[in-house]
């Protein structure tokens, strides 16, 4: 099947895109409002934008623009990207729900917090990796917003760190986002690989 962009309106392109661009890493973004209310929300349109300076980016979609995350980042210019491990997946899911602005998602999800070392934003204490960021810019892309933040602090659990600045993927146990579900990321292989299906 071929779908021309003129025919996109006749298809659920959201499902077709999200079903093909998988598995996606999840940025579990913690922020704080100017009034001190802690917020925590996951975003799966997430990647590294630059390594010099080290810059992360995640997209706040059109349906998510009313989330507290974007408003808090615009106000404080700070956020933390926490990596979701399997043991935190249920807590992450709870924070994906629409909660009132005055609610503290850390409390609602039963998620332990620790203060930031370089930003005034709490980190997910049990996340294997936590990256403190200062806002670089917010770019409007269509009806969405692309948030870019420079990493100013990097936290990694001792059990995940190995062999001179490597992250052990077996112990990281990251959660991948599929179309509507999630995936384990546990099996790894190198290339070339003659065992792959032809």
From TrEMBL:
Start and end residues of each Flavin reductase like domain: 19-168
Key words of the record: Flavoprotein, FMN
The protein's required cofactors: FMN
Domain of life of the source: Bacteria
One Gene Ontology MF term: FMN binding
Organism: Halobacillus locisalis
UniProt keyword annotation of Flavoprotein present: yes
Keyword Flavoprotein: yes
InterPro entries in UniProt: Flavin_Rdtase-like_dom (IPR002563), Split_barrel_FMN-bd (IPR012349)
Name under which the protein is recorded: Flavin reductase family protein
Similarity comment: Belongs to the flavoredoxin family.
Any matching Pfam family: Flavin_Reduct
